Amino acid sequence: PAEQPAEPVVVSEFSEAPDLAAQVEAGTLPPVEERLPDNPVVTVADYAVVGKYGGTLHSASWWPEVGNVQLYFAVEAPVKWKADLTGYEPGLVESYEWSEDGKTFTMHMRPGLKWSDGAPFTADDIMFWYTDIVLNKELSPTPPSWLKAGADLGVVTKVDDVTIKFTFNSPYGLFEQYLAHVDARTMMCFPKHWASQFHPTYTDKAKLEETAKANGFTGWVQQFNGKVGNTPDCGGSGKYSVAGRPTMDAWMVEQPYSGNATQVTFVRNPYYWKVDEQGRQLPYVDRLVRTLMPNSEAMVLKAVAGEVDFQTRRITGVHTRSV
Hints:
Elements: H1 18-26, H2 32-35, E1 41-43, E2 56-61, H3 68-73, E3 79-81, E4 88-90, E5 93-98, E6 104-109, H4 123-134, E7 148-149, E8 152-153, E9 155-160, E10 163-167, H5 175-179, H6 192-195, H7 205-214, H8 220-227, E11 251-255, E12 263-268, E13 274-276, E14 287-292, H9 296-304
Parallel strand pairs: 1-13, 2-14
Antiparallel strand pairs: 3-4, 5-6, 6-10, 7-8, 9-10, 11-12, 12-14
């Protein structure tokens, strides 16, 4: 008989990193219980000792995509692979189910989720991604292929504040796999309450065009990609170009990316939605420092000098991935 799955770890008391505890003590940040969702993700370590708070993780890049340290080191998706790779389990979402015909996928998000600035993360944020980005021909001339079953784009609808439904014209058995892939981070990448200021559905288009040109962009589309994130996949450096840009990632932008930047830095997200099995809010590492290098040779020299702690890709060439 198949081995029965282990019971999920339940945590009822929570704590946080010392720097966040100090902010709570000073009255500048709500208590950790108010910052976490009603049912945070409990990450269970498969080793005897859990992590310790503190430290700075140094990495480097010579490629104009400063975010790959998060792209490969801290990918957040609605659904995630199980640790033994035998299937999937909820990630950002609390639960999900398929219709009997395999054409409708319904996912239920965790109540109480918040962006890094404390604003609620709800179904409206996912609908903003779908309605105002995926279906906007200027932002998305080519819709994401993973949202298609065959040639037809799926339809995304809001059921309530924490429930989203995906409907396809034919059964789509691979959809869970895509939801556990880096591509699906896009639906968690566009904070409606913040990104709306750069979108003509919510801000006067003429003013947007004027502001875009004043900021050195050719138009509102280029400004949206440059300030919010490339569309529809949320790639590029746009999401790292504004300090404090709301995010669901474990770290948020502190020192932003710019054309003449020498480094980009991140600090922990005080509203991050995961804890360890002792109820300590993640992440453990205080800061990420991403040094921008002129070429791969300089990056290798920096690593040899012991100034790089962790590297995921492009350390020796364009497509090379190394750790």
